[in-house]
Specification:
- The structure is a single chain.
- By secondary structure, the protein is mainly alpha-helical.
- 63% of the residues lie in helices and 3% in strands.
- The chain has a 4-stranded antiparallel beta sheet.
- The termini are far apart.
């Protein structure tokens, strides 16, 4: 056709049948010829008839053939694709009413949407770029709108759902050519702006989802291509798209069902190409976060209680039930997500708080919620759900603390000298604060809100107290300033006792002593002395709370009360307790707290008040329980009082005799609490704090503990999640182990049938049984103490015991198989001994010295150092058990690595200690015999024993191997002096067995082994 076109055209003009035949052959050509050949035929024919009208007829016949049901869809699509490749270069005629591809295009739409077919979407997209040649423009617009609708309806759901529908891939692949070609079909679509917004969401938000969804990854790649193509056009919709995109961010930040967390969304907005697209240097807090009204609405519907000990001073009747709150997958509520995003922004926009000081209230609220979560994660919380992990909450709390410190330190440093006086005066008279700065606004707002709501909810009381604490802490408040705050507290004490108490508590805990605070304490004590038992639960309780709040810090220069006033006060309180009135349970707790502060004042004043205090200790210990959350505050205060009294007694001989008369009774009640069976399955933070306090006091007081009960109750605590508790339990167990060993050694020496077997306690073996895996640094840091301390305790059992008891302990340890199955794997993984790992280097640490209290918690390698201490002790205390495992080890590479590690770091130290001990032994009177001598050859790590008989010497030599004690000491004999060979070898073997038992007593015994008869 290309070569003979003109001639062929003349023939067609003279022969109508030939022309009709050509038109009729189009169907056959489309169905049977390769697409490229068929299109070559059509294009040459179109060129031949250009401008004659026959080209339009031929084109419509071609479209009819392509869209015919007789033509296979695969062939139709291939031919259409070949045509579309040439569409930008060839001026194809427009389609007629009887010859369009609407049917085929519709099938391509269905394939693209139902199957996500990439080829169908690509062909359809190119068709829609120049639709007038193939389908009516209205139809094309409908297809484009349908694809746009799929995008706008699907992408928002992807911000929540976990699976990407194939229809989104097909729609995006279809729309991509339209955006690249700047097609009016895309730009004139009613959903154009929405499509752009959703494309941006895919490109810059959903791209951060990491869940291995290949379809989503494909959609994101296509969306990025679309966004780049859109960015290259000067579009008047850009500003609208920007705001709509940010609105999506705002909604997602608050959506607890969103797949992405707030800080991740904030980071997404820092993408350089996104900033360039919107022509901004960076997005500020005002752009990223929703309007402040959103925070106000969330805050107004959120409340919080109080469960921590200091806030137990507030009236427990002031409660507000917390409504159920939904949380996201990380455990944050909608309010929490917003504030977490703000904290992320604050890391690079330090002035955000200065521009929006009202955010301080919301951050303080988060701090309260974080404190409550860490105390009891099961309590309903407006910010953190029970599924939130502790590191997340602690991280949020640290970020809040950093933001608050930045704001308050900056704000307080700029106030005038008279700020406190003018502010307190304005608050007292309910007038406008002269200073309009951010700090004054926050103090005024939180104070007045606390006044208004103090009888309904503790939320605003806690927030105001935190504001007051920040002001007093950051501002280095003077005595004159403190006087003004106490004056304000006194002015509102009757109308707002809880807010008044907050101010007093804040000033007292700031360590600032002032005249008005001292006067307030005396007035409160005087008033309490005059309250009869009948009003103890009303006026008395209110005054007592306030007096406790006013107590000076233990290390401050303030005096709680004059001695005589203190005596009168305790006498009045004693009358309350002795009366027939049914007192509020809180009164006993508060009296104990007051007594802790008065004890140093009453130290040298004898009287019945001390019997009253001791009676309170006993009764509170008996009435409280570690399993009863309602008694936690009372028990904590009682433990504090016991510590204060015992400390005072240790430094005052006269008072010590008074205390010792009641100490045993108090300690008996204390032991009941210490060894109480813990029924809680959920370990709350406040429970952990109280348990730690019990253990610390127990370690100090050293109460008498029954062995079996003590081991049963205390040993499981070695697996407590708190490292502090694990350490304190270990220190309590060590003397218990020593006491048990003394008993077992005595019983073993008696050798009667009633003596218990020399075995390790079964409770200890049960604690050792759970397998603790320390595969990586994180496991080691999290579970290091729980893995090591039980084994350190095992080794404590082998200290200062008889040979018989030690053999029994060693046998029970070997029988249990725990050395091989538990101890050795922990040491290998902790010290990275398994090839090809590089073992932990311990040159800079003295592995033979172990002080648990000095464990540096800031040292990242602290537990590896602890593992090296454990390995050293195991090699010196139970070498035979380690040696037995080493001899059975089949992995030669691991054996070589352990041998090299031992010979490098442990053998020199252990053999030096052994040789020094033998050298001392040889020079002692016990071995002062002219016929017997011991020679130590430190350089070659050998010991010789020489026995002289009739000027003839009989000697043996013991050599320490290079990796001792993994391998046995080798004992060799010299001259036999007439001893039969078999008897001599048996004696040498016996000496070698005794020498390798791993105890200095054995070494002493081996030196004294009877020499065979000569």
């Amino acid at each position: 056709m290309w070569k003979f076109g003109p001639t062929f055209k003349e023939d067609l003009a003279q022969n109508a049948d030939m022309e009709n035949g050509l038109f009729a052959s189009i169907n056959q050509a489309v169905r049977t010829l390769p697409p490229a050949t068929a299109i070559d035929l059509v294009q040459s024919s179109l060129k031949l008839w250009a401008g004659t009208g026959k080209d339009e007829r031929l084109w419509n016949r071609l479209l009819q053939a392509i869209g015919s049901t007789e033509c296979p869809k695969q062939q139709s699509t291939a031919v259409l694709s070949a045509i579309l490749v040439e569409a930008p270069k060839v001026p194809y005629p427009s389609c007629g009413p009887d010859g369009d591809l609407s049917g085929l295009a519709l099938s391509l739409v269905e394939s693209a949407l139902t199957q996500g077919d990439i080829e169908s979407a690509a062909v359809l997209g190119r068709l829609l770029v120049t639709p007038s040649h193939f389908i009516p423009t209205q139809t094309a617009q409908g297809f484009a709108d349908r694809m746009s609708s799929v995008v706008t309806q699907t992408v928002p759901s992807l911000l929540r759902s976990q699976s990407t529908p194939l229809s989104l891939r097909g729609a995006l692949r279809t729309l991509l050519p339209l955006f690249v070609a700047k097609s009016p079909l895309a730009q004139q679509s009613p959903a154009f702006s929405d499509v752009i917004v959703n494309v941006l969401v895919l490109s810059y938000i959903l791209c951060l989802v990491e869940d291995g969804d290949d379809t989503l990854d494909d959609c994101i790649a296509t969306a990025k291509s679309i966004s780049k193509a859109w960015a290259q056009t000067s579009c008047p919709e850009a500003a609208k798209a920007r705001q709509s995109f940010l609105n999506v961010v705002h909604a997602t930040l608050q959506d607890v069902q969103a797949r992405l967390e707030g800080p991740v969304l904030v980071d997404a907005l820092s993408a350089p190409d996104l900033l360039t697209m919107f022509d901004v240097v960076t997005f500020d807090a005002e752009s990223i976060l929703p309007p402040i009204t959103a925070f106000e609405e969330l805050h107004s519907t959120s409340t919080i209680g109080y469960i921590d000990t200091p806030l137990a001073l507030f009236d427990p009747a002031i409660k507000h039930s917390l409504s159920p709150v939904p949380y996201d997958k990380s455990g944050l509520s909608s309010y929490g997500r917003l504030l977490a995003a703000f904290l992320e922004i604050f890391k690079w926009d330090r002035h955000a708080l200065m521009r929006h000081p009202q955010m301080i209230v919301y951050l303080l609220f988060v701090e309260c919620a974080a404190e409550d979560f860490l105390l009891d994660s099961e309590e309903r919380n407006p910010i953190f759900g029970s599924s939130a992990n502790k590191p997340l909450v602690m991280s949020v709390r640290e970020d809040v603390s950093m933001a608050l410190a930045y704001f308050f330190s900056s704000a307080v440093s700029s106030i005038s000298d008279s700020w406190h006086q003018r502010t307190c005066s304005a608050l007292k008279t309910n007038s406008q604060v002269p200073d309009t700065g951010a700090l004054s606004q926050i103090v005024t707002q939180t104070f007045r809100t606390a006044l208004d709501t103090e009888t309904r909810s503790p939320r605003d009381l806690r927030i105001f107290r935190k504001v007051a604490s920040q002001v007093s802490k950051a501002g280095d408040i003077s005595s004159q300033d403190a006087d003004q705050w106490i004056l304000l507290s006194e002015s509102i004490r009757k109308q707002a006792p809880q807010t008044s108490l907050s101010i007093t508590l804040t000033i007292a805990q700031a360590g600032v002593e002032c005249m008005r605070l001292d006067r307030l304490r005396n007035e409160l004590a005087s008033s309490l002395s005059g309250v009869p038992p009948s009003r103890a639960n009303t006026d008395g309780l209110r005054l007592l709370r306030h007096l406790v709040a006013s107590a000076p810090l233990p290390d401050s220069e303030g005096v709680y009360l004059p001695p005589q006033r203190a005596v009168f006060l305790l006498q009045a309180l004693q009358k309350w307790v002795a009366s027939d009135e049914e007192l509020d349970e809180e009164i006993d707790s508060l009296i104990v707290q007051v007594s802790s502060g008065l004890a140093p004042i009453l130290l040298t004043i004898p009287g019945s008040h001390w019997d009253f205090v001791f009676d309170l200790m006993e009764s509170n210990l008996e009435a409280t329980s570690i399993n009863d959350k309602g008694t936690y505050v009372c028990l904590s205060r009682t433990l504090n009082l016991i510590s204060v009294v015992d400390d005072l007694a240790s430094n005052n001989k006269t008072f010590r005799s008074t205390w010792m008369e009641r100490r045993s009774l108090v300690l008996n009640a204390f032991s009941e609490r210490l060894l109480e069976q813990q029924a809680q399955t959920h370990v709350s933070g406040i429970h952990q704090d109280l348990l730690l306090q019990l253990l610390v006091v127990g370690r100090r007081l050293r109460p008498s503990i029954e062995e079996e009960k003590g081991l049963e109750r205390l040993l499981p605590l070695l697996h407590n999640p708190s490292p502090e508790i694990q350490v304190e339990v270990y220190h309590l167990l060590v003397p218990l182990v020593a006491s048990r060993n003394e008993r077992v050694v005595v019983e073993a020496a008696v050798e009667n049938d009633q003596a218990s077997p020399c075995e390790l306690p079964h409770q200890l073996l049960e604690v050792l049984s759970p397998k603790i895996i320390l595969d990586d640094e994180e496991d080691l840091l999290e579970r290091g103490l729980a893995a090591f301390l039980p084994w350190f305790l095992v080794l404590e059992f082998f200290e200062d015991i008889s040979i018989k008891v030690k053999n029994g302990y060693a046998e029970s340890l070997t029988t249990s198989g725990l050395v091989v199955s538990r101890l050795v794997p922990i040491l290998i993984s902790s010290l990275d001994l398994k090839p090809p790992n590089k073992p932990f280097q311990i040159e800079m640490w003295a592995v033979d010295e172990f002080y648990l209290d000095l464990l540096d918690t800031s040292l990242p390698s602290r537990f590896r150092v602890l593992a090296s201490h454990l390995l050293h002790r195991a090699l010196t205390v139970i070498p035979s058990s380690i040696r037995l495992w080493f001899q059975d080890l089949k992995d030669r590479k691991l054996a070589d690595a352990i041998s090299l590690y031992t010979s490098r770091y442990f053998t020199p130290l252990i053999t030096e200690q052994e040789l020094s001990r033998l050298k001392e032994m040889g020079s002692s009177e016990e071995f002062s015999d002219e016929n017997f001598s011991i020679k130590v050859h430190s350089g070659v790590r050998e010991v010789s024993a020489i026995y002289t008989v009739d000027d003839q010497q009989m000697n043996i030599r013991a050599a320490f191997p290079p990796d001792y004690p993994l391998r046995s000491i080798n004992v060799e004999g010299g001259q036999q002096l007439g001893i039969p060979s078999n008897k001599w070898k048996a004696w040498l073997l016996n000496v070698q067995m005794v020498a390798n038992q791993g105890d200095k007593r054995y070494r002493s015994q081996s030196s004294q082994e009877a020499v065979p008869d000569v």
